[in-house]
Amino acid sequence: MSTIFFLRHGQASFGKDNYDELSDTGVLQSKLLARFLVETKGRFDAVYTGTLERQRKTADELLQMLGEKGEQVPEVCRMEGLNEYPTENIFRALGPIAVEANPSLREHIGRLMTDRRSFQKVFEALMSMWASGRYDRAGLVSWNDFTAGVNRAIDEILARDGSGKNVAVFTSGGSISVAVSRTLNLTSDDTMRVAEQIVNSSITRVKSTTDRIMLFTFN
Predict the structure, then answer these.
(1) Cβ neighbours for 179, distance < 8 A, ≥ 6 positions apart
(2) What is the Cα–Cα distance from 91 to 109, expressed in whole angstroms?
(3) Which residues of 95-108 are buried (b: 16+ CB within 10 A; e: fewer)?
(4) Parallel, antiparallel, or unpaired for β 166-171 and 2-8?
(5) Are 177 and 195 in contact (CB under 8 A)?
(6) Virtual CA dihedral for 137, 141, 147, 151, nearest 10 degrees?
(7) What is the distance between the alpha carbons of residues 16 and 189, in angstroms, rounded to a whole number?
(8) Confidence category of residue 75, pLDDT binned at 50, 70, 90
C-alpha cells in the first residue's frame, strides 16, 4: 500500500488583485508544513500538484527542504484535475439567481472581497446551489464534471504510485473534499460541508492500492 498525503496549499491572498498568490501567512504555513513533512516522513517517492500558483508554491517549499536535507527530490507532476473549483465563475453565474431567491445576500455580495464573513455567507449559498446540479449553466463547469476530473487525477496517481510509496499531493479544499467523499461515499451536500472545514496547509492522509483509497486521517 501507499500513503498519499493530500495537502492543502497555504493561505492565498484574499482581497488582493492576485488571489492565487500565497500571502505572507501562506508562505510561513508552507514552510512549516514542509518542515513537518521532512522531519516526520523523511522521503517522498512522488509529488503531484495542480497548476495553480498557490499549490505550486506550497509544493516548492517541500522540494527545497528535501534538497537541503540531502533527500531525493522527485520530479513534480502537475495535473489540472487537482485544481480548485472555479469559484469566481460560479459566483458570477449564480450570484444573480441567489440574490433573487434571497435578497439579503445582496449586501454581502457587495462586500464579497473585503469582508471574510460576507464571503463565507455567499460562498456557502452559491456553492450549495452549484453542487446540487440544479443550476448548471452553459460555459460553467458542473459539479459532476469537477468531481469527475478530480477522480480521474486520483485514478492516475493510484495507477502510477498507488503501491508501496509515500506520495505528496498539493491541491485545494475542493479536491480534498472529493477524495474524502470517495472514501466515505458522501452526498454532494456533505462533500461541500467537508470542503468548508479544510484548513490551510492541512494534511489529509489516505492509504491506497492501485485501485482504491481509504481515509486514514483528516485535516
Answers:
(1) 6, 150, 154, 204, 206, 213
(2) 9
(3) beebbeeeeebeeb
(4) parallel
(5) yes
(6) 150
(7) 29
(8) very high
